[in-house]
Amino acid sequence: MSLLIKNGRIITSVDDYYADIFIEDETIDVIGRNLEMEADRVLDAKGYLVIPGGIDPHTHLDMPFGGTVSADDFETGTKAAAHGGTTTLIDFAIQTKGHSTLEALDTWHAKAEGKTAIDYGFHMILTDLEDNRINEMRMLADEGITSYKLFMAYPGVLYVDDGTIYRAMRKAGEDGTVICMHAENGIVIDEIVKEAVKKGQTAPKYHSLTRPTQMEAEGVHRAISIADVANVPVYIVHLSSADALEQVVLARDKGKAVFAETCPQYLFLDYSYYEKEDFEGAKYVMTPALREKWNQKELWRGLQFGDLQSISTDHCPFCFKEQKELGRTDFSQIPNGAPGVENRMSLVYNGGVVAGRISVNKFVDLTSTSAAKIFGLFPKKGTIAIGSDADIVLFNPDRKETISVNNTCTHHMNVDYNTYEGFEVQGISETVISRGKVIVDNCEYKGKKGDGKYVKRSLYNEYYPIGHPIKSDRP
Ligand code: URP
Ligand code: ZN
Ligand code: ZN
Fold it and tell me: Could you give the count of Cα atoms lying within 13 Å of 46 in the half-sphere of its Cβ?
């Protein structure tokens, strides 16, 4: 099968030019002006931005959590991601305490294999690390699991203590892999939560009021310090506040291999959403919590100046009616997480490029290239280059849509609300190509279950020797 994309404006994280792209089977074969090649199908990309497929390095599909299971599985979640212009995601396999990580990997392979619309990889969540299992980490790397997520939050569930963090970091560093950290002091937060519930402060807004930004900043500082001693690159996930960002900036200024992502919810939503009536605030109960609005400006600065490298979604949907309901009388029982995988590209383009905050190149970097480099997918993914996987989006930079659970152009996620309900966005992923196959054609899904494949990721720095730049672009 061959495909010729004509007349497009190709944008990568560094280039912006007009050319045609010839795709043979799954990869990009030729890039050039006025290509006259025979192809099974020709797409006219005039007026479109031709960008690398989005990479979302943080999703939770089919995840048991908060007394329930996230509402999107690997079929529905990846199909929704495809509609939104994302062609690769990295989800999380979860090791069960006392059990092998390899067992966890098998479990997550079984959840995903044959079901996905797009390519996928896994980070491994470690919930403990007995000495006799530490060597599994090397085996995981051989299986293409080249990053871990550790939790300083959620005591009694996913939390690991500092000793475990240190041991995991040492081994991850030795193996050439990366540690992702949920950096929040869960031990202190749990005490604050108990105090609040005891006082009868049970409404959704107390989820935010019991998770001060200082506890996120402390977690970030501790994660960075332990990683420094253990000699491993650390990637702070879902960074939400200016306080936390300050810690990342300090470390990067010292040349430490510290990276961080933020998410659309922290760029576009704020604390006031928790004050919605009729328990609606529960829709926004996620961890870290939404912050006061002024933090958003600081996060955008972090993105503009390269202190934050990536925008993921932390997509972890729970239905309002049946699942968020679990915490109707006590906010601490509301399953933590919100949907977003489908709307990321449009939100970032609209709030970033259209709003004049970032360039189109930065848009591509933040939604695709950077994650590919940090997580061992580059240059197979994350760019448009000869030999790379033909994961390409024809992005209409002019089309406007109002995001809504009822808009068939913006919502295919298996959840009964949209976190960004009513947001008007300019910029829509209209045609999406995954390894040479058109899976979304002018907003219509044309793929099938099982089109996506597991991607073995390479080690940090294996194909990208300088790693991701640590130098800031701050003046
Ligand atoms: O609220 C969230 N973020 N739920 C998913 C689990 C996590 O901490 O990433
Ligand atoms: Zn987390
Ligand atoms: Zn998460």
Answer: 3
